[in-house]
Structure formats: structure tokens, C-alpha cells
């Protein structure tokens, strides 16, 4: 260990003053019983102890109580998962551990590391342990590295801050070693690179390298994969696990994604409105969630590994504002089990099962445990609207949107005043799919795969560069004038990802909903009537029409966007990641709404998403895109169970499944490297550089991959189409 | 510190549960946020007092700004001449009242005209993009290369004394909008990429309507703030030009011109310089305070809106 | 790199050419040098007026395009910027004035940058404290005060100090009044003259550096990468100094480069009040004398300074910020 020659130029580490005394209380005793995880019960003394942590901020709106009474212990080598939605206080908890909260934060309670109290320490004192004993990996790797310094300098800084005497060559060697450890190829050369030359995934690897540089005892990872694509997420989670193994550190993994914790954590703390509401070993929590909120969360998440045979169960309402937390149990306004007594007093964590250290905070916990209530008992599954027309077989329904071999290039501009075109990027290169009435086709792919460009090409209603787009029987190449185009717009609408930016903040909702109608020259009375109708259709109170978008929550805003898109009664709706920016508990409600609307209105959906679990739940058919090309197209059920393209299989294998037992036994295909730049020229298969199948092929076959571009074809094994010379067999299971 | 929008925060949490929230109109909200700031209120009060002085100062004073009292030349303040007289025997109180009015008039008209041109030019080149934007930007850059101060001086110098103030406004406007147009273009550029603009386009709303209904209202706060702060610049330019003798000319008067008169007698009659200076500084300072206050009240990014991102 | 600069420079030269030509036509349209002679008493003979105007290439009876072509050829071939209505060479008149202006503005520019940036850094780190509030209020005051008012107030104060001291500490006009050979005395005399205009220009100039530097640093201080630096074990102050400060100096550097132009045209008022025979004052004389050629030459000089500044700004930011690629 390097601790032996630890020296800090400013002051000695504050940890040396401690006597290593551990608080032995009920909380610790309870945690020592948590054995239902991959590592069994914790052994030995905890490295960090958090007791009765409270954090509040003075804001203009009042005192924001972000964290209210958090307790936990961390052991070296173990991972604690803290799960919660936005506003649950999980990130504030993390930042308070490492002492990086803003100055206006008031922190109370106790955080001890090796028995030394950390709360109340000055910035200078905390800096002696930050990076040395406790390190952090942040959410957004794009902004977390200083753009002006090289990667090497930034890693070296974390070494030299705590070991100023370290000789130059040793620093260099350690940096190379660290970059190699986190899986960056050619570490020696990459030391001189600047952050902007790295992809998001690579930057997150660098962040992990910085975090483990001094072999800390505790690593805090705050939503480390949220900003990344699913195949990159799988890579980063693996690097994080490796980093933990290498350093033996305790890891705090903060996330909203139950799938991520299922595979990575030993113990789980579920937070709601700044308070822990349930805590258990990983298996206990997923097997018998006991607090209604946890049950709801697990029920609201679509499962990527099972067929969608029932509706999702949304949790009603929104999380409370932390400035104005309701009295009693903060979840009671949204809880189906709530009785008037629930709003009287806030319940504490109590044992669900004494012997397993499983705790939950609910006034009716005893009832839940005694009756062994499952989430289906607590949250009744809502009835689906049965579409009358669904009986009609698919091939008898008309095609509403047809895209054939669509191509779109973007010019690559040079610098300077007269930006000349120096090349071109194929953002979309051979996209083919068709949607029939009342059907949902999912377009799935990672960022940069050309999904959004495809949508924009359709929405522009212009003749495509190459290939053909047909909307409701109208070939876009044959549309002559603006009037025809405007006529068609009535039947084709779009919903965007971010409900913040898709509604004009200066327009009241009435005008937002009236805008498409005015563009189609409706008269005033009809508009008035239609606006009221639309509000009810998406489940909003029509009396709210004179409010501004900022007065609605994210989920409500997305409902308004949906209402606006439906205003002119379109036949085809394009949805660009419509739920990606919503909280888990809100997502289910919007998904159900979209399903109901389709059943009622017979609309076709083109649903663009990166979340495969959602896609499996909502879509009938799926088109998988890679680098601008549709590489697999078929029935959702078939594609998910029998992927034919190696990329589809890798993608499916990368999704974390919210079930710890499955997660542990699954073997994952981890794709190497990042998606290549679409500016490159590909003679053969675009996926060849990362394909896990290619190395198993013969020399001749490999040549074919590199020289011949595969096109979308099918075979006799199933109905799926794929763009691969050497497709997988149908008996290969995806999960 | 800036104030934030508590109303929207409260309502967003209660709206779903159906609880009715008192809905403040946007105007009320802005007014409330503006008047919560002491400095902004001070700015408004000073500005109103100056305005009253400019409007009615000439009426309560028994001397007129163009009516010299040859019995008192460069006299210090007295009961007869409240703020003293200048070397030509003109009453300073009357002069400053008239000059202040002229400076305000020039400042306000110039600023409004400047921002109107800048807003139209800036949003249009940003919205249409492509070669229109490239050519538009080149022209802006080119105009920035010419020292505009020199051209304004040239134009105003050529005008006759009576219409001088109109030519001053024309000159200041013709070369003052360039910088603002660049700022507005930058802001409009980020708006152009917003989903609601795209959504409007995909609904079939026309370009001109999108500019008027979405772009301009969303830039309104920024345009209003810059109009107020633009008055400060216009007044400063007017003062400078008049002081140099290439702006407002006798027999008309402005604060800059009074300063020029006083500059030669700073040693013997300092009051001729001091009083118009005070009026000028109060005018520009009050506009700055009002502008800063408006910025905090109108700019939604000026403070976190009370939500916690955990 | 060289290609990038060359491309930029070429564009700027085109811009400058268009701008100067535009100024030439504007000046020819609005200035009437003929009136200089026609209003003179006794009125000179018409033939002599025409001859003088023709010699100076400012006769409005000649087509403006012909005059423009003549003017342009002289500049391109002989670097001759023409004659004033009184037939003095613009080239000769311009040189000493540029020198005087440079003497005046160099010191104050350096001072405003150093003091302004330092103050910006200081106040940004004390946001919401009284120091920040105090300096921000002062800055707002100096931001809005018209330069003539400020300069006149400084003159008033200096006169009061001189009177109180009983002898002349500060000179309020000119750049020198000592004509002896003693270098030390000469330098002392220079200081006595330059100090007031320098204070005036510095106060006006440093305000914008203070306010912008403060904003830039505040923006960068809350950037994610500063938090990363702190998570490595740097204290807040170290993280700001090593990471945020450098990023925040890039836009300031660009501003400094751009300010080169305003340095010459911005000192007009100060030069007039302190009676310094620099470029600004020359410009006022030129305007009042209907001196077309001199006015255009001054505008050209200002424009060239702007573009040199812009070019320096381009190079500077590309050099400091690895994200800007020069291709």
C-alpha cells in the first residue's frame, strides 16, 4: 500500500488523529444480519459510518430538506446501492460523504470514517482525505474533466496532490498503469490526449482511473452510467467492478435504475423524499419488497427479459417538493394503501424480518408482512383498453408509413470563414421499415445510430436524398407544393424527448394546443371545443388551460405534448424518446396513456428509444439500427427471444435486468470499444470492427465481412430480417 | 441575490392532485419580482424625479433656457439663479432642465429604434440560417470594423443646428444596432434549435408566424433589458458628441453641451460642470438600476427555481 | 496553423477594404470642404478655390468615383493617404498623433487589464460578501458615468489638490511642459502630465474587465470539472486557481485583443479634456475642418487596429483552448 509514505504538503491527513473507534448500535447490528446477497453478510468493522444524516438548503422558496435521517455503514469490498428518483436526496447524500456540497448546505448528524468524524471539517481538512481515502465518479463524464488539460495531467494531479514527492517517472508509470486498468487502449499515447478527443464512455473510464489512483477506501459512484449508451454502460459497470476488486474499496452506487443495482450491489437503500424507506440485502429487496413505494417502483419498470403480457402499474401523482414535504408519510398521497392515519406521523424504518436485517418504513408494515402482500395486491393492474380492430390480421391493415433504403448525408464542414465542405457523413445509410395502421414499430439504437435523423427526414416531408418515404400512400418525392405538404402534416405528428423544451414557456397551454389547429385553419369555436377534448383525452383537468408550461410537472408536460400532437387527429405519430427524461414512477403512466390512445384512435406509432425494456413492452415490431443502417427488423417478441444479428444480441445482453438472480448468472457480451465515427468509410459490414462473431469465423468469411456490405434479408429459420452474412441460429437465447 | 419564481414551484407540485392554485398573471409576477429589489425601486424613483424635473423644471423657474440674464454672468447659485449661471448669463436650472429632457429624449428614442432594428435583423438571420445568415454576419462584422463614433460625428456635424438632435438620433441608431444584433442572433440561434420551434414547423406554422409568436416573445425579456440599458449608452454617446462640439449645437442645449461650456471655467465656476454632471450620473445610474432589476425579474435563468436536483 | 491565420487575415483585409471604402463615400457625401473657403472673408477667387480643392482631390465638382479611384491608387501605389483642405499631408500629420495617443493609452490599458482582472478574480471568489457588493456597486457607477463627466471631475479634484498644496502637483493639460535636457526632470514632468488622464482612462477601462472577468470566473467556478478537481483532494481555492482560472482567462484574453482598437478611438474625450494632441483630438479637428482624407485615414487606422485585435484574439484562443482546432 502507498499509505506508508503518505505525506501531504498542506497538512497531515485528518484520519491519523482517529482512534478507529466504531459505533456499535442497533443499526450496525441489523446490517450485520443482511446476508441475502452474493457476498453474504458483511464481515468485520465498517470503514465508514453514517448516522442520522440531515442536509438542508436555504432556497428562495424556503428551506429545502434534501436529506432527512439517513443511516448506513460501508464495508471495504462491498457495494451499497442507493436507489431513488430525482429529488429523493440520493446525490446530496453522496456529496455530503465527500464534503463537496455547496456552501449554503447545512449538514447535521455524523459521518465517520475509520472512527473519525467528518462533519464540521473545513475544506482544507476534507481535502486531505478526498482523493486519497474517498473518491467519487460523477454522472456526466462530458463536463467532469477540465477541457484545457491533458488526460495524463489530470490523472497525475490526483497522485501529486497527495504525494508531492512522487518522482516523475513513477507518476508516469502509474498513470499508464491506471489507464490500462480501466481498459483504454494504447495508454502510453492517450496520456497526451485532451478530454474532447475521447468519447463519453472513454471519459468515464478516465474518471474511474482518477478515482482509484490513490487506492481509496471508499468510492462513490453517482449515476455513473446514466449519461451513457447501454453497451457502454455494460462496459463501465464492468470497469467499476474491476476497480473495486483492484482497490478493495467500499462502493456506494447511486442510481435510479433498478437493473443497474440488481447486478452490482450487495445491499440496497431505497430513498424517497430525502428519507430511506426500505433497506435490505439485494435479494430480499427484489424478492419481497415491503414498502409500497418500493413495490410500486419494481412494478412500474418494464422487464426486458419477459414478454409484456400485462400492463405496467403507474404510481399516481408526483414526488413531493422537498421545500414543502407533506405531513406524515411523504408517500401517503400516492400510496394505494394509505389511510387518513398515514398522514399523521412519519413512520420509521422497522424490521420486516428480524433475522435478515430487512427494514421498511410503513405504518401498515405489519399487515403487509402478515398478509404477505405482493405488489399486485397493493397496486391493482389497470384494465387495458381493448382495441376493437385488433382482430384484423396485420397484413390486411393498410400501411401508414413506409421507408425504403433511406439515405441522408451531412456535409462535413471545414473551419474558417467560408466553411467549405470537406467531406460527408452518412448519418442514415439504408433504413428500411414499414408500419401498418394501429401498430407500433420501435426504432432502437445507440446515440449516433441515426434514429433522430431518420425521424427528421420523415418530418421534413421533402424528397429524400436517396430511397423512398411514403406517408399514408403519398410518396414524398411526388409532393409538389407547400399546400399539399401542409395537408399531410395534419396526419403526421411528432412528440419530442424533452417536455421542457418542446413547449414554449411563454405560451399558455390553451395556445399550445390551439397552435396546430390554427395552422390548419380551424374556426374559433371548434378549437375551443377540441382543446377541452384533448385535455380530457390525456387525463388533464381542462380548467388548467390558461396556465403556463412551467406550472406543470415533467409527466404532465409530456401529456400536454401528446395532446398537442393529437390535436389534428393524426394517423401516424413519431415519438422521439418520449419517456426517457421522466422518472421511473411517472414513465409507466405515460406508457399506459400511449397504449390506450392507440387502442382508441387506431394510430400508428414510430417509437424511437434506447431503452429496450420499454420497447419490448410497447412495440409490436422493432427495427434495430447501427451506424445509420437497420440491421435487424422483425416482430418484437421474436427479435428479443431469437436475435439473428450479433449486434442485436450484444445489445440485448447489455441491458441490466431488474432481477439480481438473473443478473448474477447471465453471461454478458461486452462489445469492445466505441461505435466508430460515421464519417469513416466502410467497405463491408459497419459492425465488423466490434463484432464478437467475426473472430470465430474462417479467414474467407472474415474477408467477406470486411469487403461486402450485408443487406437486409431473411431466411427460412424465422420471419425476422437481418443485415448479416453469418446470422445467429434461432435457438440461441438472448437472456 | 436574485429572486425566484416560487409560484410556479408550488403549483407544479399541487396541480396533479387537483388542488386549485391561485394563478398569477405573468405581468403581476414580473412586477412583484421587480419591486422586491430595493435598488430597482430606487432606480425607478430617481428616474421619475428626473422626468418630473425635465418636464416641469422649466415651468417653475422664472428664467428660460434661451433667455440670458446679462446682469449675472457665471454667478454661483443664489436665490435668483438657483443653480447659478453660465458665462453667457443663462440660468443653469433652466438649462439643465431643458438639456436633461433633450438627453432623455435622444437616449430613449435611440435605444428603442436601435433595439427594434437589432431584433428584426438578429432573429431573421438566425431563423433562416444558411447563406442569409452567413452574409448577414459578414455585414455585421464589417460594420463593427468602422469606428462608428467617427461616422456619427461626421453625419451630425453636417446637420444644421435645429435638426441636430434628430440627426444625432439617426446617426446613433444607424451605427448602434450592430452589436445588439449580434447578441440577439446568438440568443435566437439557441432558440431556433428548441423543440417547440421544430414542433411548430412540423405543424405547418409559417416562418414569419414562428418568428413573431415564438422567437420574439422568448427574446422579449432580453430585448426589454437591453433597451433600458441601451439608454445609458445612447446618453453617454450624446454627451460625448455634444461635448466635442459635433452633437447638439446652440441655441439648443443638452447636458453634454453645458459640460462643454463649463469645462473652460472649471477653476472659476465649477458649478457649471458639477450640476449637469450630477444630473447625468443620476440619469444613467437610474437606468442601469432599472435595467439590472428587470434582468433579475425577467430572466428565468437568474436563479434556480427552487427545485432540488438530487 | 499558418494557413489558418493567413485565411483569417485575408478575410479581414477584404472586410477592411469594404469598410474603408464605405467610410470614404460617407465622408465625401457629408463633408463639404468647399465651404471652408467660400465662407472665408475675404472670399478667395473661385479659380484658386477650385485649384486647391483639386490638388487635395476633394473637389465635389469631380465625380466621387474618379476621386475615389485617384485616392485608392495613391494609397496602394505610394502609401499616400492624401492631403487636408489646407494641403497638408495626412501621412505627416498622423504619425506624431499616433505616437502621442500610444503614450497616453499604453499605460492605462495595461493598468486597466491588470487591475480589472485582479479585481474580477478577487470579487468572484467573494460572491455575496460585502467586498463583492462594494466593488460591484462602484463598478456600476464607473460603468455608467459618461467619460466627459469623469474626466472633468478628476480635473476639479486635481485643481483642488493643487490649490491646497499651494503648488502644481498635477498638470491638467498636455503631455509635457519641460523642455530641458535633464532626463530625470523630463520623466518627472511627463508623469505629472500623464497621471490624470491615465487615472481617468484606467477607471473607465478597468470596469469592464472587472465585471466580465468576475462573470467568467463565476461561470467556471461552478463547472463540473472544478468539482472533479476538488474530489481529487484539491482545496476549493486550489481547484479554482488551477482549473477554473485558466478557463476564465480565455475570454478575457480575447477581450484584451479586441480592446486594441478602442484604445485609440476611445480616448477622444480624454484627449480633448486634457488637451493632448493625439489621434482623437486630430479627428475632431478633421471633422470640423471638413477634412475628408484625414477622417478616412483615422477610420482606416481604427479599423485596422480592430482587425489586428480580432486576429490576435483568434490566435490566442486557439492557442489556449485545445478544443478549437485550426484546420
Structural account:
Chain C: It comes from Bifidobacterium ruminantium. Chain C: It is a multi-pass membrane protein. Chain C: It is found in: Cell membrane. The complex is a heterotrimer of chains A (735), B (310) and C (327). Chain A is of the alpha/beta class and 735 residues long. Chain A is built from 24 helices and 24 strands. In chain A, helix 4 packs across helix 5 (168-181) and helix 4 packs parallel to helix 7. Residues 1-9 and 415-419 of chain A have low confidence and may be disordered. Chain B has 310 residues and is mainly alpha-helical. Chain B has a single domain, classed as MetI-like fold (Orthogonal Bundle). Chain B is built from eleven helices and no strands. Chain B has helices spanning 6-14, 26-35, 38-60, 92-128, 130-145, 148-158, 164-192, 195-203, 207-243, 255-263, 271-298. Chain C has 327 residues and is mainly alpha-helical. The chains are: A alpha/beta (735), B mainly alpha (310), C mainly alpha (327).
Helix and strand arrangement:
The complex is a heterotrimer of chains A (735), B (310) and C (327).
Chain A: H1 26-31, E1 48-59, E2 62-74, E3 79-83, H2 90-98, E4 105-113, E5 116-117, H3 123-127, E6 134-137, H4 151-162, H5 168-181, H6 187-190, H7 200-212, E7 218-222, H8 230-247, E8 250-255, H9 258-264, E9 267-272, E10 275-281, H10 282-287, H11 292-300, E11 350-353, E12 358-360, H12 365-371, H13 375-378, E13 399-413, E14 421-436, E15 440-444, H14 451-460, E16 466-471, E17 474-475, H15 482-489, E18 492-495, H16 509-519, H17 524-537, H18 554-566, E19 572-576, H19 584-601, E20 604-609, H20 612-618, E21 621-626, E22 629-635, H21 636-641, H22 646-654, H23 660-665, H24 699-707, E23 713-714, E24 721-722
Helix pairs in contact in A: 4-5, 4-7, 5-7, 7-8, 16-17, 16-18
Chain B: H1 6-14, H2 26-35, H3 38-60, H4 92-128, H5 130-145, H6 148-158, H7 164-192, H8 195-203, H9 207-243, H10 255-263, H11 271-298
Helix pairs in contact in B: 2-11, 3-4, 3-11, 4-5, 4-7, 4-9, 4-10, 4-11, 5-7, 6-7, 7-9, 8-9, 9-10, 9-11, 10-11
Chain C: H1 2-30, H2 34-38, H3 46-55, H4 64-78, H5 90-124, H6 130-144, H7 147-165, H8 183-221, H9 224-231, H10 236-265, H11 268-273, H12 279-288, H13 292-320
Amino acid at each position: 500500500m502507498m499509505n506508508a509514505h503518505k505525506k501531504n504538503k498542506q497538512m497531515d491527513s485528518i484520519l491519523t488523529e482517529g482512534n478507529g473507534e466504531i459505533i456499535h448500535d442497533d443499526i450496525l447490528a441489523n446490517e450485520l444480519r443482511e446476508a441475502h446477497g452474493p457476498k453474504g453478510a458483511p464481515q468485520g468493522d465498517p470503514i465508514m459510518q453514517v448516522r442520522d444524516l440531515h442536509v438542508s438548503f436555504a432556497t428562495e422558496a424556503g428551506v429545502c430538506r434534501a436529506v432527512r435521517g439517513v443511516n448506513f455503514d460501508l464495508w471495504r469490498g462491498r457495494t451499497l446501492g442507493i436507489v431513488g428518483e430525482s429529488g429523493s436526496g440520493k446525490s446530496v447524500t453522496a456529496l455530503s460523504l465527500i464534503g463537496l456540497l455547496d456552501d449554503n448546505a447545512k449538514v447535521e448528524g455524523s459521518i465517520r470514517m475509520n472512527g473519525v468524524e467528518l462533519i464540521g471539517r473545513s475544506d482544507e481538512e476534507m481535502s486531505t482525505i478526498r482523493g486519497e481515502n474517498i473518491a467519487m465518479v460523477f454522472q456526466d463524464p462530458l463536463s467532469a474533466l477540465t477541457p484545457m488539460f491533458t488526460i495524463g495531467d489530470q490523472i497525475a494531479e490526483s497522485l501529486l496532490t497527495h504525494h508531492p514527492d512522487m518522482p516523475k517517472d513513477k507518476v508516469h508509470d502509474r498513470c499508464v498503469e491506471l489507464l490500462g486498468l480501466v481498459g483504454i487502449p494504447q495508454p502510453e499515447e492517450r496520456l497526451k490526449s485532451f478530454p474532447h478527443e475521447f468519447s463519453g464512455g472513454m471519459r468515464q473510464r478516465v474518471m474511474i482511473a482518477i478515482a482509484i489512483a490513490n487506492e481509496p477506501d471508499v468510492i462513490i459512484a453517482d449515476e455513473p452510467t446514466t449519461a451513457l449508451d447501454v453497451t457502454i454502460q455494460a462496459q463501465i459497470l464492468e470497469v467499476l467492478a474491476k476497480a473495486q476488486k483492484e482497490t478493495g474499496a467500499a462502493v456506494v452506487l447511486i442510481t435510479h435504475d433498478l437493473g443497474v443495482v440488481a447486478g452490482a450491489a450487495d445491499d440496497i437503500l431505497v430513498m424517497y423524499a430525502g428519507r430511506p424507506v426500505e433497506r435490505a440485502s439485494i435479494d430480499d429487496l427484489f424478492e419481497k419488497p415491503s414498502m409500497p413505494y418500493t413495490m410500486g417502483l419494481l412494478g412500474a419498470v418494464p422487464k426486458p427479459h419477459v414478454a409484456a403480457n400485462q400492463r405496467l402499474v403507474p404510481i399516481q401523482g408526483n414526488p413531493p417538493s422537498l421545500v414543502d414535504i407533506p405531513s406524515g408519510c411523504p408517500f401517503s398521497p400516492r400510496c394505494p394503501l394509505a389511510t387518513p392515519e398515514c398522514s399523521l406521523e412519519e413512520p420509521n424504518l422497522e424490521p420486516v424480518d428480524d433475522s435478515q436485517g430487512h427494514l421498511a418504513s410503513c405504518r401498515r408494515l405489519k399487515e403487509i408482512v402478515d398478509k404477505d402482500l405482493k405488489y399486485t395486491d397493493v397496486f391493482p393492474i389497470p384494465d387495458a383498453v381493448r382495441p376493437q380492430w385488433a382482430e384484423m390480421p396485420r397484413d390486411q391493415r393498410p400501411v401508414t408509413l413506409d421507408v425504403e433504403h433511406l439515405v441522408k448525408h451531412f456535409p462535413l464542414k471545414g473551419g474558417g470563414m467560408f466553411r467549405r465542405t470537406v467531406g460527408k457523413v452518412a448519418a442514415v445509410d439504408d433504413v428500411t421499415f414499414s408500419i401498418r395502421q394501429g401498430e407500433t414499430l420501435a426504432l432502437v439504437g445507440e446515440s449516433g445510430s441515426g434514429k433522430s435523423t431518420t425521424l427528421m427526414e420523415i418530418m421534413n416531408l421533402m424528397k429524400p436524398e436517396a430511397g423512398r418515404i411514403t406517408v399514408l400512400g403519398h410518396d414524398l418525392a411526388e409532393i409538389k407544393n407547400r399546400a399539399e405538404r401542409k395537408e399531410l402534416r395534419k396526419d403526421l405528428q411528432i412528440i419530442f424527448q424533452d417536455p421542457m423544451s418542446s413547449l414554449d414557456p411563454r405560451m399558455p397551454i390553451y395556445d399550445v394546443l390551439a397552435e396546430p389547429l390554427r395552422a390548419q385553419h380551424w374556426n374559433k369555436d371548434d378549437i375551443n371545443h377540441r382543446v377541452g377534448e384533448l385535455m380530457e383525452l390525456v387525463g388533464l383537468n381542462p380548467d388548467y388551460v390558461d396556465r403556463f408550461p412551467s406550472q406543470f410537472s415533467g409527466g404532465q408536460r409530456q401529456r400536454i405534448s401528446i395532446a398537442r400532437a393529437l390535436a389534428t387527429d393524426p394517423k401516424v405519430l413519431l415519438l422521439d424518446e418520449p419517456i426517457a427524461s421522466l422518472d421511473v414512477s411517472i414513465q409507466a403512466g405515460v406508457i399506459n396513456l400511449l397504449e390506450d390512445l392507440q387502442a382508441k384512435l387506431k394510430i400508428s406509432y414510430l417509437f424511437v428509444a434506447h431503452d429496450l425494456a420499454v420497447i419490448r413492452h410497447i412495440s409490436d415490431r422493432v427495427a434495430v439500427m447501427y451506424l445509420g443502417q437497420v440491421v435487424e427488423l422483425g416482430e418484437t417478441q421474436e427479435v428479443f427471444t431469437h436475435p439473428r444479428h450479433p449486434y442485436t444480441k450484444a445489445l440485448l445482453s447489455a441491458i441490466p435486468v431488474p432481477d439480481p438472480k438473473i443478473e448474477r448468472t447471465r453471461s454478458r457480451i461486452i462489445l469492445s470499444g466505441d461505435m466508430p465515427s460515421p464519417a469513416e468509410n466502410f467497405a463491408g459490414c459497419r459492425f465488423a470492427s466490434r463484432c464478437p462473431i467475426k473472430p470465430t469465423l474462417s479467414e474467407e468469411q472474415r474477408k467477406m465481412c470486411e469487403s461486402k456490405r450485408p443487406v437486409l434479408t431473411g431466411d427460412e429459420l424465422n420471419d425476422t430480417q437481418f443485415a448479416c452474412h453469418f446470422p445467429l441460429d434461432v435457438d440461441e437465447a438472448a437472456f | 441575490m436574485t429572486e425566484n419564481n416560487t409560484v410556479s414551484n408550488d403549483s407544479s407540485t399541487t396541480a396533479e392532485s387537483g388542488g386549485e392554485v391561485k394563478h398569477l398573471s405573468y405581468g403581476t409576477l414580473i412586477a412583484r419580482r421587480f419591486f422586491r429589489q430595493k435598488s430597482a425601486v430606487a432606480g425607478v424613483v430617481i428616474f421619475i424625479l428626473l422626468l418630473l424635473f425635465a418636464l416641469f423644471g422649466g415651468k417653475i423657474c422664472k428664467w428660460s433656457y434661451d433667455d440670458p440674464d446679462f446682469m449675472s454672468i457665471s454667478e454661483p447659485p443664489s436665490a435668483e439663479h438657483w443653480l447659478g449661471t453660465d458665462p453667457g448669463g443663462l440660468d443653469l436650472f433652466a438649462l439643465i432642465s431643458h438639456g436633461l429632457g433633450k438627453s432623455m429624449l435622444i437616449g430613449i428614442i435611440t435605444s428603442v429604434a436601435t433595439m427594434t432594428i437589432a431584433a428584426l435583423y438578429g432573429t431573421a438571420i438566425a431563423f433562416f440560417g444558411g447563406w442569409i445568415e452567413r452574409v448577414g454576419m459578414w455585414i455585421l462584422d464589417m460594420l463593427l470594423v468602422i469606428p462608428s463614433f467617427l461616422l456619427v460625428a461626421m453625419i451630425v456635424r453636417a446637420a444644421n443646428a435645429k435638426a441636430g438632435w434628430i440627426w444625432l438620433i439617426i446617426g446613433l441608431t444607424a451605427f448602434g444596432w450592430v452589436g445588439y444584433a449580434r447578441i440577439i442572433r446568438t440568443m435566437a440561434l439557441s432558440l431556433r434549435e428548441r423543440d417547440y420551434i421544430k414542433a411548430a414547423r412540423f405543424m405547418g406554422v409559417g416562418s414569419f408566424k414562428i418568428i413573431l409568436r415564438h422567437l420574439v416573445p422568448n427574446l422579449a425579456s432580453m430585448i426589454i433589458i437591453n433597451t433600458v440599458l441601451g439608454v445609458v449608452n445612447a446618453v453617454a454617446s450624446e454627451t460625448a458628441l455634444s461635448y466635442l462640439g459635433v452633437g447638439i449645437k446652440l441655441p439648443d442645449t443638452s447636458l453634454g453641451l453645458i459640460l462643454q461650456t463649463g469645462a473652460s471655467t472649471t477653476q472659476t465656476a465649477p458649478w457649471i460642470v458639477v450640476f449637469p454632471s450630477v444630473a447625468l450620473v443620476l440619469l444613467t445610474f437610474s437606468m442601469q438600476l432599472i435595467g439590472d432589476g428587470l434582468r433579475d425579474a425577467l430572466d428565468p435563468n437568474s436563479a434556480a427555481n427552487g427545485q432540488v436536483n438530487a | 496553423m499558418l494557413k489558418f491565420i493567413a485565411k483569417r487575415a485575408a478575410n479581414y483585409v477584404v472586410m477592411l477594404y469594404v469598410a474603408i471604402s464605405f467610410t470614404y463615400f460617407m465622408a465625401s457625401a457629408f463633408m463639404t470642404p468647399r465651404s471652408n473657403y467660400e465662407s472665408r472673408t475675404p472670399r478667395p477667387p473661385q479659380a484658386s478655390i477650385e485649384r486647391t480643392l483639386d490638388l487635395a482631390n476633394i473637389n465635389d465638382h469631380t465625380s466621387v468615383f474618379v476621386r475615389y479611384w485617384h485616392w485608392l491608387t495613391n494609397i496602394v501605389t505610394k502609401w499616400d493617404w492624401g492631403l487636408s483642405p489646407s494641403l497638408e499631408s495626412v501621412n505627416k500629420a498622423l504619425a506624431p498623433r499616433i505616437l502621442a495617443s500610444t503614450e497616453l493609452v499604453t499605460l492605462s490599458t495595461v493598468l486597466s487589464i491588470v487591475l480589472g482582472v485582479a479585481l474580477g478574480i478577487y470579487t468572484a471568489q467573494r460572491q455575496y460578501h460585502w467586498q463583492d457588493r462594494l466593488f460591484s456597486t462602484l463598478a456600476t457607477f464607473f460603468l455608467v458615468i459618461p467619460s466627459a463627466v469623469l474626466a472633468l471631475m478628476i480635473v476639479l479634484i486635481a485643481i483642488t489638490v493643487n490649490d491646497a498644496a499651494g503648488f502644481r502637483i498635477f498638470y491638467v493639460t498636455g503631455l509635457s511642459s519641460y523642455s530641458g535636457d535633464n532626463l530625470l526632470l523630463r520623466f518627472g514632468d511627463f508623469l505629472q502630465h500623464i497621471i490624470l488622464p491615465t487615472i481617468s482612462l484606467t477607471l473607465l477601462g478597468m470596469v469592464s474587465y472587472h465585471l466580465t472577468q468576475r462573470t467568467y470566473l463565476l461561470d467556471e467556478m461552478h463547472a463540473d470539472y472544478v468539482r472533479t478537481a476538488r474530489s481529487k483532494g484539491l482545496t476549493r481555492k486550489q481547484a479554482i486557481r488551477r482549473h477554473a482560472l485558466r478557463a476564465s482567462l480565455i475570454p478575457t484574453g480575447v477581450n484584451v485583443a479586441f480592446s486594441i482598437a478602442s484604445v485609440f478611438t476611445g480616448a477622444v474625450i480624454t484627449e480633448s479634456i486634457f488637451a493632448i494632441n493625439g489621434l482623437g483630438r486630430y479627428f475632431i479637428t478633421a471633422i470640423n475642418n471638413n477634412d475628408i482624407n484625414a477622417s478616412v485615414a483615422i477610420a482606416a487606422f481604427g479599423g485596422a487596429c480592430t482587425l489586428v485585435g480580432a486576429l490576435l484574439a483568434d490566435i490566442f484562443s486557439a492557442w489556449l483552448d485545445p478544443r478549437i482546432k485550426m484546420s
